[in-house]
């Protein structure tokens, strides 16, 4: 009861903050939020080797019954990092169209942190739906990160729009293949990675649906550091505007930003509480086989709604235990340094699920043996890893365990269905079995007898569920032969084999967590609203 009261007080305080912020907003902003919307916002950015981006935006804007002259688009050209320093970009407008015909416009440079493109004839009023197209250039858009990678972050539509957005698509084409990418969605500062990757090749494309006012998506892509000849550099900015708040955010929008941040936190908090409470309604009892038609990666996501490396590690082990490849320990871990491993191809990938087939192909390419160290620098492998989350989410949506993205919410806690909770309970029961002690086994008369062949068969699932160490301990008194899929120099005595498998699991999990981080977050530090372009706009 005490926790519930605290939650209610927090919610009421946040709602009050939102109402105060809303009351401070200009009447036109409120009208736009309730009556107008962007049906579709598309941004296509092409960045050349000099670091210059040519950006083409398509905005399907619905004025409803409001009589307006057109829209205005505020593109940031200076971005504050600290009080008086940040990035300055050059902006040049190329063309403006409305409904496929050139449209009257005016460019206003009178505010220091952004450029406004005001589109429409001051003497002509319009309403209903209209398509606007803008083409402009920004340079340089690349940032040289501390890790030595070139990072590009772009926002669409930007967190300065006061209207909801039905759907948004952002595409980026660079001078060479990207190393990794991700996409953030939500209000300013959100780190929720909840966009849909449509294309991960040279032209990188992400999409999202049903954005609230002041929500955006931010595409982040990492390239090799020599991909661009010019980079944005931090310099002193014009000090005539407010120091820490971008000028394209209206003064009343400060409260709105706070309210949005509070709203986002509340949504996540409430969905997490509901998720935990809903799980408590399920009955968990031991199950002795993994759920049919689910890969170890699938169950690794479903058990906790997160991708943290266990899914990839479990998948790699399963590729070995099912005979597709062998893992070789080339150098044991010493007090200083780390162990070194190689993957050896044993047969082709026919019969594997599509994602595992792709991952297998990216691991070996045209070689029959590859070191784990080489995979750390294999860009095509990392691009396959970046699809890990969406692949397993799509699989679990197909089984009916999650509601489709865009139907309810972006975070998985809120999207789990009743079927998903039932399956989660099955996984908890299977996890209970993998975590058995001898005393536990005696308490369940129907528990299967331990057999050596069980060890390798179920090891990938134990890794996915985070109980591999406990699973290994169950076999300490049995002769377990893993030589068909794991080649270690110390032979396969009982104690050495199991100890070596535990070390292998730990080492692969560390590698997998690093690969997932590289594949999905580039150089890190990204968030929604943290990219170039973007900004805001509205009607006038």
Fold and architecture overview:
By secondary structure, this protein is α+β, with helices and mostly antiparallel strands. The chain folds into three domains: 1-35; 36-251, tricorn interacting facor f3 domain (Immunoglobulin-like, Sandwich); 296-521, yeast vps74-n-term truncation variant fold. 35% of the residues lie in helices and 27% in strands. The chain has 15 helices and 25 strands. The strands form five sheets. Strands 7-6-10-2-1-14-17-16 form an eight-stranded mixed β-sheet. Strands 8-9-3-25-13 form a five-stranded mixed β-sheet, with no helix packed on it. The longest helix has 28 residues, at 253-280.
**Rounded Rg:** 27 Å
* CATH topology-level name of the largest domain: yeast vps74-n-term truncation variant fold
Note poorly predicted spans: 1-34, 240-262, 406-410, 518-525
Major β-sheet strand ordering: 7-6-10-2-1-14-17-16
CATH class of the largest domain: Mainly Alpha
Structural class: alpha+beta
* Biggest sheet record: 8 strands, mixed
- If helices are DSSP runs of H or I spanning 4 or more residues, what is the number of helices? 15
The oligomeric state is: single chain
Query: If you average the pLDDT, what whole number results?
Result: 79
Instruction: Work out the helicity level.
Output: 25-40%
How many strand segments? 25
- Strand proportion, as a percent range, falls in 25-35%
Name the CATH architecture of the largest domain: Orthogonal Bundle
How far apart the termini lie comes to: 50 Å
Number of domains: 3
Shape summary? elongated
């Amino acid at each position: 009861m005490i926790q519930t009261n605290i939650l209610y007080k927090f919610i009421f305080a946040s709602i009050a903050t939102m109402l105060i912020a809303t009351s401070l907003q200009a009447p036109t902003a409120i009208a736009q939020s309730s009556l107008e919307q962007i049906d579709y916002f598309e941004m296509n950015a092409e960045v050349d080797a000099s670091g210059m981006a040519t950006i083409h935006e398509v905005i399907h804007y619905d004025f409803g019954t409001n009589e307006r002259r057109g829209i205005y688009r505020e593109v940031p050209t200076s971005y504050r990092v600290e009080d008086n320093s940040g990035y300055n970009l050059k902006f040049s407008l190329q063309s403006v169209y409305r409904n496929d015909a050139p449209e009257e416009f005016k460019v206003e440079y009178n505010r220091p942190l952004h450029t406004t493109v005001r589109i429409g004839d001051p003497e002509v009023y319009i309403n209903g739906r209209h398509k606007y197209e803008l083409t402009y250039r920004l340079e340089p858009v690349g940032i040289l990160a501390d890790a030595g990678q070139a990072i590009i972050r772009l926002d669409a539509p930007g967190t300065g729009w006061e209207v909801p957005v039905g759907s948004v698509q952002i595409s980026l084409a660079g001078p060479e293949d990207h190393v990794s990418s991700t996409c953030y969605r939500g209000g300013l500062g959100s780190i929720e990675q909840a966009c849909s990757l449509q294309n991960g090749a040279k032209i990188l494309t992400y999409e999202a649906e049903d954005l609230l006012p002041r929500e955006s998506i931010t595409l982040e892509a990492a390239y090799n550091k020599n991909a661009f000849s010019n980079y944005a550099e931090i310099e002193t900015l014009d000090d005539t505007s407010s120091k820490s708040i971008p000028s394209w955010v209206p003064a009343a929008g400060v409260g709105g930003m706070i309210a949005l941040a509070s709203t986002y936190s509340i949504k996540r908090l409430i969905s997490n509480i509901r998720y935990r409470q809903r799980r408590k309604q399920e009955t968990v009892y031991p199950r002795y086989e993994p759920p049919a038609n689910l890969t170890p990666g699938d169950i690794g996501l479903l058990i906790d709604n997160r991708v943290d490396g266990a899914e990839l590690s479990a998948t790699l082990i399963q590729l070995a235990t099912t005979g597709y490849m062998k893992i070789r320990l080339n150098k044991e871990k010493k007090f200083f340094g780390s162990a070194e491993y190689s993957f050896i191809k044993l047969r082709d990938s026919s019969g594997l699920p599509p994602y595992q087939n792709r991952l297998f192909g990216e691991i070996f390419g045209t070689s029959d043996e590859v070191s784990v160290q080489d995979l750390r620098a294999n860009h095509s492998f990392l691009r396959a890893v970046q699809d890990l989350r969406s692949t397993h989410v799509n699989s679990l949506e197909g089984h009916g365990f999650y509601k489709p993205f865009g139907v309810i919410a972006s975070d998985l806690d809120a999207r789990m269905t009743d079927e998903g909770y039932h399956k989660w309970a099955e996984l908890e029961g299977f996890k209970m079995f993998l975590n058995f002690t001898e005393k536990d086994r005696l308490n369940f008369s129907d528990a299967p007898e331990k057999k050596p062949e069980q060890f390798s068969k179920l090891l990938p699932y134990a890794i996915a569920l985070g109980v591999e160490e406990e699973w290994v301990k169950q076999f300490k008194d049995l002769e377990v032969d893993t030589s068909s899929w794991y080649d270690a120099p110390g032979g396969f005595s009982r104690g050495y084999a199991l100890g070596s498998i535990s070390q292998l699991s730990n080492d692969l999990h560390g590698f997998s967590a690093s690969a997932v981080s590289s594949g999905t977050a580039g150089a890190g530090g990204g968030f929604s609203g943290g990219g170039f372009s973007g900004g805001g706009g509205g009607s006038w």
